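Protocol step 4 of 6: structure prediction from sequence.
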Amino acid sequence: METVCSSRVAFLSHVSVVCVFQDLADRIPDDSDLTVLAKTKVLAMVQDSIQRPDTQTDDFTILSILHLLMSEVGGFQEDVFNMHQDGLFRIIHQRGGINALGLNGDLSSVVTL
């Protein structure tokens, strides 16, 4: 949690996953307004991070994309899921592969899982 809370984009992306979980718990078949808002904000922040050379492949951008990917699991929009998955793979490759991920080695474990 310390890692997630140390970055605004990582924290908000975590919140978007929690929103999806709450929608599922409430048996809401599509994203609620709050979930859509959270995902939209995260997507904008990730796109901003990707544009900046100092953050485009950092741990928090990768973690945020992973959260976006997880928030689409079970959804009906495969194109959105595939977009996040392709972006995640591209950034990990740019970073030097799964073994080059940081967060004290924990990020590579999280991505692998």
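Step 5 (inspection) to follow. Residues 2-112 form one domain.
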